[in-house]
Amino acid sequence: MQDVRFWSGEPCFDIAHLAHVELLTPALDESVRFFVDILGMTVSARRGNSVYLRGWDDYAHHTLKLTAGPVAAMEHFAFRTSSPEALERRVAALERSGLGLGWIEGDEGHGPAYRFRTPDGHIVEVLWEVDWYQPTPETRPALKNQASRFPARGCNVRRLDHINLFAVDVRASRLALQDYLGLRLTEIIIFDDGSEKGSWVTSNNKGYEVAITEDATGTPGRFHHVCYAVDTREEVLRAADIMLESGVRIEYGPHKHAIQQTVFLYVYEPGGHRVEIGCPGARLVLAPDWKPVVWSQEERKRGQAWGLPTVATFHTYGTPPV
Amino acid sequence: MQDVRFWSGEPCFDIAHLAHVELLTPALDESVRFFVDILGMTVSARRGNSVYLRGWDDYAHHTLKLTAGPVAAMEHFAFRTSSPEALERRVAALERSGLGLGWIEGDEGHGPAYRFRTPDGHIVEVLWEVDWYQPTPETRPALKNQASRFPARGCNVRRLDHINLFAVDVRASRLALQDYLGLRLTEIIIFDDGSEKGSWVTSNNKGYEVAITEDATGTPGRFHHVCYAVDTREEVLRAADIMLESGVRIEYGPHKHAIQQTVFLYVYEPGGHRVEIGCPGARLVLAPDWKPVVWSQEERKRGQAWGLPTVATFHTYGTPPV
Amino acid sequence: MQDVRFWSGEPCFDIAHLAHVELLTPALDESVRFFVDILGMTVSARRGNSVYLRGWDDYAHHTLKLTAGPVAAMEHFAFRTSSPEALERRVAALERSGLGLGWIEGDEGHGPAYRFRTPDGHIVEVLWEVDWYQPTPETRPALKNQASRFPARGCNVRRLDHINLFAVDVRASRLALQDYLGLRLTEIIIFDDGSEKGSWVTSNNKGYEVAITEDATGTPGRFHHVCYAVDTREEVLRAADIMLESGVRIEYGPHKHAIQQTVFLYVYEPGGHRVEIGCPGARLVLAPDWKPVVWSQEERKRGQAWGLPTVATFHTYGTPPV
Amino acid sequence: MQDVRFWSGEPCFDIAHLAHVELLTPALDESVRFFVDILGMTVSARRGNSVYLRGWDDYAHHTLKLTAGPVAAMEHFAFRTSSPEALERRVAALERSGLGLGWIEGDEGHGPAYRFRTPDGHIVEVLWEVDWYQPTPETRPALKNQASRFPARGCNVRRLDHINLFAVDVRASRLALQDYLGLRLTEIIIFDDGSEKGSWVTSNNKGYEVAITEDATGTPGRFHHVCYAVDTREEVLRAADIMLESGVRIEYGPHKHAIQQTVFLYVYEPGGHRVEIGCPGARLVLAPDWKPVVWSQEERKRGQAWGLPTVATFHTYGTPPV
């Protein structure tokens, strides 16, 4: 467990935060309706086969891009750096890593981005230039320190919280994010045989921005879920009520994770992606010398915080489905 | 408003977080009882005339030090750096600033600290070495990613959130924190005559860790309040119920601040200090290019978020009282 | 205080609950939009100049009837009896009272109703026959023990909670409701000179269904407010957020009443009526020998539960405005 | 289903509410500590081998009596009538029923009570005379419309909500409560073969005060659980946190029942009884012509509201254990 460290090397603050995720969906219209009507997000833009969305307190143009595709899959996700110089440093590191794929010109809502591939095959972008969301008369907030108006619709999700990757080799992908992007490891599952079953990494004071968990099907590069945050645990319960009323299948929860203590609800959006409505509360990782919390095989047998066993599909269902 | 910038210079991550505050109280025993029985904090240590306390998810040995004194006053507060090297850099900057006071050996729970004085006269420490809280059998948490056991007592405050300084010259003290410590300015009140009435600065993703507001009595170097965070707004209301039952005077709230949107409750502890129980919810400042939100004189006339006028004592009552 | 009794005579269960209220509004369309979009109610029917509405868990066809009128006023409110026989008994008592006005044929959603006038001049109906709300495909709930689907829109008010009458003679109107309808008195304000300033009466386990408070303008028969209930105090705070975003004027709150302990938010709907979003929580008056809680002049000086003074308009603003 | 009626005969209001329950426990001291320290209840009196307890807003001397016994069992539970005359009427009906056992003199906190036996063998008392709880200086509430001070300890349960009986013949016991006490049936489970698997009855506006469910072990007269109410669903989640921290075994939940929609948490107290912390929210059954909600075998297969399957022990574990 020599490599189980909060910081992979020197403290590094080059990555500011998880910026967005692009999901391919075979049911674009239904997926958009799900995120808008049920989750309470708003559409920032439409271009070609893509729709750009955000939660009411996401400051950026979008945090979710939905694109029509033949099958549900995560096309890429992105991190924003802390400065233009930080982007240069990260690109240099990635180029040395052998994982680099090169630059793209940009997209709606952001400028040039450097792409790389995780050892498991997920596409990741790092970028600096981002358009701030400009409220319309309908979305202008009453308080100007808020990105846009509280929608009072559906689950009213506040902001992108984190994503969860499926990986065949959790350790390799986790180390890549630590070594080349400077992310910090906050919690980890290591089984008795030394295998790394899950890792939670972050670039800031959130407990995690990317979770990587083992794909029991052995398929590389798949996606587990995206999570949008609400302020209270009560809102997670309310989300469950709304899913029930809307006929959306609840896979798991509401309950509280032992790891990271997020109160969660997992559902499937119409395109097939797993989506979490989660509440981190006021929990933050502020310590600059946090020791990664290592969960053993024995400890993970206890299920989630309040005793619910982990649902079997959590280890096998991802997108694209296999 | 040339100096109204998120970062004073280059992005700087040398300060990790607000670490602790030391309050002098003329009623030490009653103050300890207030923080333990009513706020739900626990005592980590007692030494001489001082008692060291923390909230159940504060990772450090203590975040509050109460010391017997002739009159209520804030003796000092402290920031923890991101690394030993970051501490060296900050000390070098402070020594150049002319505000430096020099090193102290340390205290219960932390190692050597460098002291300086804000332009208004508040004593501040920066330090790296900190003891992590070691739970006792009574305070050991069920989940090992939590600093200690949820107390199920009183207001159950989770962690130190922020402090509010009173200042005669808000701008000078704010710039000192930005220029020498690298803190970021997230919100600010500037009146029509250009005077800076309040500033909110942070070293991390919290919206603020230090607020500085103008002392209408013109007395330099006073203290406004310390705030401990709870997870939900409901817990702030429950805190109000508990204050009512306990005969603790509620000065202001529960209500929601327009600035930073914290749901707040202000009370007086037995020594005379103003204490806030506050809920930041899931709100974070993640943008590395946040533009400080500037509130005008006209806008501040509207009172707090839901319309409550600011209580008059907010501009005049601080510790030590005058 | 000889007449300050929970039961005016023998225990009487002839009235089951507050059934509905009809409000005249000079801005019908805007009022409907307020109750539908902001409060989250649904329209059951429209007839002539009237629109019938209900909260998502109101079992009846409607609990609110909005009718276009030249000025905001409460046209009438209604109680439902426990049985047809109970209706006959109440009508017999009302006919003896000298307050009776006679039968009306019925209205959308209910059958014949007997009308009477309170001593202060408010029109009241008692009735038995009521149509249960029949959900449409859009409003059909997932759980069949719920009146209709949770709307996930605006404040999501659950059900009619209570109304507040303004009266010149609080005692006379309160006694009429106790003597002829058999309502129970749970709380009361009596000033040092013996004058009754407010009374709270109920027909069931709710702490109150009708509040009667003194109209300081001396105008008889006016209306103070109607209250719709939400499940949690957090939802009252959320309602305040929504009012702020919607530009709806908050008159008072959120805060907690000392009397009845309701957590409240008071706003004005576009027609001019005061509307409360209130949370009674799990509080019930179950004791069959409850002793009315008598609040003195001195006690009322303390303001509401957490210390907020009663807003001045609470004693003078009613509908119709004077 | 001829007998599936809300009212068994004419509307009857003779029973006011569920009054108390006496539980025998083989671990009296530990059971008392559980209800005091973890649930947040207070002790009103101790007499012989019995301890009398209540929640902070229970108006009566006690709602729970714990008595040392060789094995966990429910000794009896009690209803309070609406008046002395109502008690006479109920006793007369019970004497005619053949289920009557006769009068007992009374107990700490209440006067004479008439005892009867349900067809399944549970002992039930009906009584009128009850002592109101008299607060001590330590338990005196700040607001006099509240039974006692909010404890700010453990789960802070507010009041007795309901009990759940196990029965071999659900229908027989349910009809006895309807026919002789005048309780109302609000919800019921009837399987395809016509067998009644569960019934929920009430004497007031609460959705239920007594649930009767089938004991799959075929043992007559056992007890399923007692439930204490909290105000919010968040408090149920907090209770789960507290159980986790206290090492109390969570059997089931937190989740939301489909039937009655109570948000629940089931745990075992040290004596072996199942205890629920439940949140009914603002839900009330106000309709005097409520139609009992009939759940079919097919519908019950869907599990609880948000999809959690019913835990197997729910059909077999009761007290005394078999």
TrEMBL record, chains A, B, C, D:
<keyword id="KW-0560">Oxidoreductase</keyword>
<dbReference type="InterPro" id="IPR017624">
    <property type="entry name" value="Catechol_2-3_dOase"/>
</dbReference>
<dbReference type="Pfam" id="PF00903">
    <property type="entry name" value="Glyoxalase"/>
</dbReference>
<protein>
    <submittedName>
        <fullName>Catechol 2,3-dioxygenase</fullName>
        <ecNumber>1.13.11.2</ecNumber>
    </submittedName>
</protein>
<dbReference type="GO" id="GO:0008198">
    <property type="term" value="F:ferrous iron binding"/>
</dbReference>
<dbReference type="InterPro" id="IPR050383">
    <property type="entry name" value="GlyoxalaseI/FosfomycinResist"/>
</dbReference>
<keyword id="KW-0677">Repeat</keyword>
<feature type="domain" description="VOC">
    <location>
        <begin position="17"/>
        <end position="129"/>
    </location>
</feature>
<feature type="domain" description="VOC">
    <location>
        <begin position="159"/>
        <end position="280"/>
    </location>
</feature>
<dbReference type="GO" id="GO:0018577">
    <property type="term" value="F:catechol 2,3-dioxygenase activity"/>
</dbReference>
<dbReference type="InterPro" id="IPR029068">
    <property type="entry name" value="Glyas_Bleomycin-R_OHBP_Dase"/>
</dbReference>
<dbReference type="InterPro" id="IPR037523">
    <property type="entry name" value="VOC_core"/>
</dbReference>
<dbReference type="InterPro" id="IPR004360">
    <property type="entry name" value="Glyas_Fos-R_dOase_dom"/>
</dbReference>
